[in-house]
Amino acid sequence: ALDVRLTGFGNYDARFFATIKAKWYKLLETRKLRYPGTVAIDFVLHADGRITELKVHENTITNAGARGIQEYCCRESINGSAPFERWPDVMRQKLKTDSINCRITFHYIIR
Questions:
Q1: Which of 51, 56, 74, 91 is most buried, by CB atoms within 10 Å?
Q2: 58-84 in b/e burial notation, b at 16+ Cβ within 10 A?
Q3: φ, ψ of residue 46 in degrees (nearest 5)
Q4: Sorting pLDDT into bands at 50, 70 and 90, what band is 13?
Q5: Per the omega criterion (within 30 degrees of 0), is the bond before 83 cis?
Q6: Whole-angstrom Cα distance, residue 31 to residue 65?
């Protein structure tokens, strides 16, 4: 599960997250062993679709072997999906900036 809030522009946000989610699921398919926890990733999204300053804010995965692998899947699902589409002009005007700080929290819920 993803916990996300981005720009407030629903159509843009939906496409942005659909891209990341598809990449995350694809990466997870290659790693069958998963452990519960969350990984929160911070980054800066620029109006031209670039991502910078990507870093792990939090990782609560307790299994040492899985911790790095699951964190990698989260980081790569964002970084490997960039660059994203450019912001529409109306979005840039309303946000009054050319970049925003973002956080995506990935939840590993094992059932």
A1: 74
A2: ebebeeeebbebbbebbbebbeebbeb
A3: -100, 155
A4: confident
A5: yes
A6: 12
What proportion of the chain, given as a percentage, has pLDDT over 90? 70
Here the tokens at position 94 are: 């309303």
Cβ neighbors of 36 (< 8 A, separation 6 or more) are 61, 108, 109, 110
* Placement of tokens 């589409």 in the chain: 85
Q: Give the whole-angstrom CA distance, residue 20 versus residue 77.
A: 5
Reported as a single tens digit per residue, the pLDDT across 17-48 is 999 999 999 999 888 778 999 999 999 999 99
How far apart, in whole angstroms, are the C-alpha atoms of residue 67 and residue 46? Answer: 29
